[in-house]
Amino acid sequence: MAEAEPTAATDRELQTTANQIRRSVVEMLARAGSGHSAGPLGMAEILTVLFFRIMRHDPARPDWNERDVFYLSNGHTAPVLYATMAHSGYFPLAELGTLRRLGSRLQGHPERRLLPGLESTSGPLGSGLSQAAGFAYASQIIDRDRRRFVYVCMGDGELNEGNIWEAAMFAAKYRLGRLIGIVDRNYIQIDGSTEDVMPLDDLAAKWRAFGWHVQEVDGHDISALTGAIRHAQAVSQQPSVILAHTVPGKGVSFMEYDYTWHGKPPAPDEAQAALDSIDELERGLSS
Amino acid sequence: MTLTEQPPITDRQPLRAGFGRGLVAAGHADHRVVALCADLTESTMMTGFADAFPARFIEVGVAEQNLVTVASGMAHAGKIPFAASYAAFSPGRNWEQIKTTAALNDMPVKIVGAHAGINVGPDGATHQMLEDIALMRVMPNMVVVAPGDATEAEQATLAVARDPRPVYLRLARAATPLFLDAAPFVIGQARRLRDGSDVTLAGTGTLTYQLLVAADRLAELGIAADLVHFPTIKPLDDAALLESAARTRLVVTAEEGQRAGGFGGAVTEVLAAELPTRVLRIGIDDRYGESGEPDELLAHFGLTGDRIAEHVHEYITRAKGSK
């Protein structure tokens, strides 16, 4: 089905899409007055590549039973998922302005029952990888489906959760080659640096020891992300994880690398400066 | 609700044996049924399913959080997953995962809590799950089913497999009397086992059998008990409860679990709003269990039919005195 196939946008065009998504993230958070800024801004390229290039999906038929499936395990980064879905055509861009409002389909953390296209309810950390693994097991091993991939995004702070490593063992045991995890490796969590709060490195070695195929990539490089995901798709005998190194708050100069922006939105006056900063990033690409 | 004549008691079986048979039957009836276990396949009696449907049986290891979250993903992929462990660990250890990924997420995950109650016996307090009824019935979207014997557990498992909602199925370890017939199980429907107008005995799980014994003792004392079995704790059969309570105006509940927030709590909530009635709640009173044989423990905690009858008789005498 033509509309379900990935679009043929260039890397440059996708970079522009990612920056439009960033703008939407800033606008929604500023209007909502609460929510998380750093993670969503840092994940814009990852979600853009998945939704606009890699995944087989159809915004007009969110329950299409041959679609690839995307789990957002770090549910607090919901703004970037909502913005990506709206820019993909799942719902009108104007609805982004309802984030966190009473009666909105865009809850503070994603709620599957409210918004078609969401694959799961998430927020409490550590549960997305196992759900994705359960889906992959059902699809790959029981139904012997040879087309569908299951993608799951995780935060790096989230990897403190034991549930993640239970799922990591499970996916390796059953050789879930259709399961592809992407870790937003931005080195921050609420209380500070991930390496201060609860050290994760050597993170690649940890995943390898758990039986996963591991790649490390610049999480803002559209071409590199694409290549890593395509490579992961070709790994059939073990699950794959891509450690996507990102800059928290990417695109907004005064938020970048600052962990204090993990869990707060820009104030109204900061929002305009943030949008200007993103525009500057976009202009820099053109020059 | 009509009175159901039940078979004479000739044998004992653990509820989980009925569950094991029901699961195999459910697996034959619907190819979407899958079973997940956390290193307790034999004691949750999933072995029959694992042998019959090896491709649909998934061993997740000692990992109860993963157990239910993997099950949620499978449900999203169109499966009907039964995720079994001991109740002390599931929902004891993974309540939030059940809430977020099954109940709030509205996935038809079937949480099977084996070894609930004190009849776990010698393993002691850590393994005797007494808080699960309270924990699970406060969770929106969640159905809570506690069958009375192995025959009913088998039928309940089939009904749970057909139901589109997330369900908690509460099972027990010990072999308990078979006192119910093999009528098809209807979720949300109570069953009247004795007809009387002096007191309503409302039971859930295997303690309904103890109420049956108590009803016989009370009959010897001239007290006619209306015995109603509630194998579904949520949604509760309010109509059956209110109909009986309206005639007797005195209710006794019994459950093998904490009195606080449990089945008796659910009954009391309905009566308080609709038909204020005196309620005696029999269960474990704000304490943990301990090691012992199942029958010893029932006696120790005052949950045998004889002890319940004494307790109810005293209560009725006092209640009448204060009228």
TrEMBL record, chain A:
<dbReference type="InterPro" id="IPR005474">
    <property type="entry name" value="Transketolase_N"/>
</dbReference>
<dbReference type="Pfam" id="PF00456">
    <property type="entry name" value="Transketolase_N"/>
</dbReference>
<keyword id="KW-0786">Thiamine pyrophosphate</keyword>
<protein>
    <submittedName>
        <fullName>Transketolase</fullName>
    </submittedName>
</protein>
<dbReference type="InterPro" id="IPR029061">
    <property type="entry name" value="THDP-binding"/>
</dbReference>
<comment type="similarity">
    <text>Belongs to the transketolase family.</text>
</comment>
<feature type="domain" description="Transketolase N-terminal">
    <location>
        <begin position="16"/>
        <end position="272"/>
    </location>
</feature>
UniProtKB/TrEMBL annotation, chain B:
<dbReference type="Pfam" id="PF02780">
    <property type="entry name" value="Transketolase_C"/>
</dbReference>
<feature type="domain" description="Transketolase-like pyrimidine-binding">
    <location>
        <begin position="13"/>
        <end position="178"/>
    </location>
</feature>
<dbReference type="InterPro" id="IPR033248">
    <property type="entry name" value="Transketolase_C"/>
</dbReference>
<dbReference type="InterPro" id="IPR009014">
    <property type="entry name" value="Transketo_C/PFOR_II"/>
</dbReference>
<keyword id="KW-0808">Transferase</keyword>
<dbReference type="InterPro" id="IPR029061">
    <property type="entry name" value="THDP-binding"/>
</dbReference>
<dbReference type="InterPro" id="IPR005475">
    <property type="entry name" value="Transketolase-like_Pyr-bd"/>
</dbReference>
<dbReference type="InterPro" id="IPR051157">
    <property type="entry name" value="PDH/Transketolase"/>
</dbReference>
<keyword id="KW-0786">Thiamine pyrophosphate</keyword>
<dbReference type="InterPro" id="IPR020826">
    <property type="entry name" value="Transketolase_BS"/>
</dbReference>
<dbReference type="Pfam" id="PF02779">
    <property type="entry name" value="Transket_pyr"/>
</dbReference>
<protein>
    <submittedName>
        <fullName>Transketolase family protein</fullName>
    </submittedName>
</protein>
